[in-house]
Amino acid sequence: MNGARSADRYLTTAEFAELTRIPEGTIRQWRHRQYGPTGIKMGRAVRYRLSTIEAWIKECERAEADRRVPA
């Protein structure tokens, strides 16, 4: 399967939680507080684009690395 195609896959909140090992309730709270990767409302369901989650994780890694750099 093409890497770009898999990055365009949409995940449920449960799949996002399983991927990141973050509780579903936390992810729901983040969405309500407009924190974390942007979810997309599709009818009554919320979906998260895998590429968006991956970009958010990289951003978190960079922020952590920058925070740890000694002054």
Can you walk through the features of this model?
InterPro entries: DNA-bd_dom_put_sf, HTH_17, WH-like_DNA-bd_sf. It holds the Pfam family HTH_17. It comes from Frankia umida. This protein is an alpha+beta fold. The chain has one domain. The protein is 58% helix and 15% strand. It is built from four helices and three strands. It has helices at 3-7, 13-20, 24-32, 50-68, and strands at residues 10-11, 39-42, 45-49. The longest helix is centred in the C-terminal third of the chain and has 19 residues, at 50-68. The protein is elongated. The model has no long low-confidence stretch (mean pLDDT 90).
Give the arrangement of secondary structure elements:
Blueprint: H1 3-7, E1 10-11, H2 13-20, H3 24-32, E2 39-42, E3 45-49, H4 50-68
Antiparallel strand pairs: 1-3, 2-3
Protein name: Helix-turn-helix domain-containing protein
Organism: Frankia umida
InterPro entries: DNA-bd_dom_put_sf, HTH_17, WH-like_DNA-bd_sf
